Amino acid sequence: MGWIVTIIVGFIVGVLAKLLHPGKDDLGFIMTTLLGIGGALLAGWVGQAADWYEAGQPAGWIASTIFAVIILAIYTRVIKK
């Protein structure tokens, strides 16, 4: 059940990141989900290591979305070149 929740949360975070990132992003369903999962994992690791928040707090959603936008910005810059 944990993997299903992770995929759903990753998709939601990925969609939020695509909405917040300016420009056209030609990412499909799978890439959007992977983007969100990557942002959530990176935000969880950095946020908890830096003691910004505990697991399960709402700040994790915000950090996950921010990190997903950063990953998306890096991804679009690398792919365009």
Automatic annotation (TrEMBL):
Keyword Transit peptide applies: no
Its placement in the membrane is given as: Multi-pass membrane protein
State the name under which the record lists this protein. GlsB/YeaQ/YmgE family stress response membrane protein
> What would be one Gene Ontology cellular-component term for the protein?
plasma membrane
UniProt entry keywords in alphabetical sequence: Cell membrane, Membrane, Transmembrane, Transmembrane helix
Principal localization?
Answer: membrane
- Name the domain of life this protein comes from: Bacteria
Q: Which family does it belong to?
A: Belongs to the UPF0410 family.
Membrane-spanning residues where? 27-47, 59-79
Q: Where in the cell is it found?
A: Cell membrane
A Pfam match is Transgly_assoc
